Amino acid sequence: HLRSESLNFSFVNMSSGAMLTREQEVDVEVLPQDQANINEFGRLNARLHEARGEKEAYEGRLERLDDACTELMMGSGDNVFVMLGDAFISCTEDDATKHCEDQVEKFQQIVDKLSEETDQILERQKELKTELYGRFGSSINLEEGPN
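Predicted structure:
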């Protein structure tokens, strides 16, 4: 049988690192659901940073693929080499262009999916912020610090 315990504690202003004054401090009992919401917010924040990094990497790949497609369009119709993994494969310019366009489409779908995921994360974080700030006021800081 699990016991439900609650904690009373003071929060530190994370943006300045200073303890809140007694007037700013809110003495609120931290319920298990509050802790679950704080933990969820933290997990979402970590995933948000991962998704943004992944999206940035795929956008870089998309830019390079777009440059490659442009170079192929300006080609003379000769055979070209396409890098697949660690190997170069000789193929026609048309085949290389088709491969390049397929890769652009694939990466664009990934970027779109990551954008959608970040939007969903931000929406859920907004809901959690509303709930947590409503409960703890200025005693909790859920905002990003300067990088």
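Summary: Residues 14 and 141 are 6 Å apart (CA to CA).
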